[in-house]
Design a protein that fits this description.
This protein is α/β, with parallel strands linked by helices. It contains 11 helices and 12 strands. The protein has a 4-stranded parallel beta sheet with strand order 3-4-5-10, with helices on both faces. A two-stranded parallel sheet has the order 1-2. Strands 6-9 form a two-stranded parallel ribbon. The radius of gyration is 19 Å and the shape is globular.
Length: 318
């Protein structure tokens, strides 16, 4: 999801873009918009060191924005090995490939997460707090984060780390997540499903604000006050799951569809949200979208996607 938005913005800025793709999803915006025809594609996984070297060497890459990961907390809890392989081994493979070819002065932005902090006794999280993940997904993000810092301090690789809250927006086809799952249910006339008890508190940050953050880091990664540093990105207005679902149902005028609460979540922290003061002060980053604006654009995207999918199914029947 983030990658599609990021690629589009880079193309609009006139960048030469190379993407590493493990499994091509024809439903993604990268394919549906035709952006994939405007980029160089390397087929491979982060666990394949030779694929990373090929991507960096062949296309003379000078900046890497590391988004690749297994991103679902529930999947990590059920299948930790694949999560550790992609999120930890994949990260050190990528950093090592950049180090080996450091004569190209490759800058690296690592997409970490608020999950890297684990559970902390004080909220909001600030960048000086320890990384203390406990559950598999948290541990994978803590490790990836620390690996990035290690490659900067040990080898001088220009690395910057972005720790975001829950990123949402169009083109997220992992419908187990609360925002796309809620929108899809409502579009079908069904009650939205809440996997937790509904009181979990999170940051929710719109994908376009996250793209701005990554590109600011990429442009600044050589600066002394940025290289080797981590930055939180947040609207600093946390919400409960109930509040998110209520806002979506109100924006879609479907308040009569009340959520079904399963209370079955495993391996997730009850409350976590971020202080973004450092990013604002050092980078000049500020979110452009509040929650209703971001959700409004997101709902519009899924409405269009739903119409497109229905038309394709109708055409297939014909």
């Amino acid at each position: 999801m983030i990658g599609s938005f990021l690629v589009r913005e880079l193309l609009e800025r006139g960048s030469n873009v190379t993407v590493l793709i493990q499994d091509l999803d024809m439903r993604s915006d990268l394919c549906r918009t035709g952006d994939i025809e405007k980029v160089a594609v390397v087929n491979g996984s982060l666990e394949d060191f030779s694929a990373l070297e090929r991507a960096i060497n062949r296309y003379e890459v000078n900046t890497v924005i590391h988004l690749g990961a297994q991103t679902l907390v529930g999947v990590a809890h059920k299948f930790p090995l694949s999560t550790f392989e992609s999120n930890i081994r994949g990260t050190y493979n990528l950093l090592e490939a950049c180090r080996v070819h450091s004569d190209s002065n490759i800058g690296v932005v690592i997409a970490s997460s608020d999950k890297a902090y684990g559970e902390q006794p004080t909220l909001p999280y600030t960048e000086d707090m320890p990384l203390s993940g406990r559950h598999p997904y948290e541990v994978s993000k803590s490790c990836a984060d620390m690996l990035g810092q290690s490659y900067h301090h040990a080898y001088g690789l220009p690395v910057a780390i972005a720790r975001c809250g829950n990123v949402y927006g169009g083109n997220d086809l992992n419908f187990s997540r609360i925002i796309p799952g809620t929108i899809r249910s409502l579009l079908r006339g069904e009650a939205p499903v809440i996997r937790s008890d509904g009181t979990y508190v999170r940051d929710y940050v719109y994908v376009k604000d996250v793209v701005d953050a990554y590109l600011l880091l990429a442009e600044s990664v050589d600066r002394e006050d940025v290289a080797g540093e981590a930055f939180n990105f947040s609207t600093e207005k946390p919400s409960t799951v109930f509040e998110i679902v209520e806002t979506i149902t109100r924006l879609m005028h479907l308040e009569h569809l009340k959520p079904l609460v399963l209370n079955s979540t495993q391996g997730e922290i009850k409350s976590q949200y971020l202080d973004a003061g450092k990013a604002k002060k050092v980078l000049g980053w500020h979110p452009r979208y509040n929650l209703e604006q971001g959700l409004g654009e997101t709902i519009t995207w899924y409405e269009g996607y739903s119409r497109c999918t229905e038309q394709q199914e109708h055409d297939g029947e014909d």
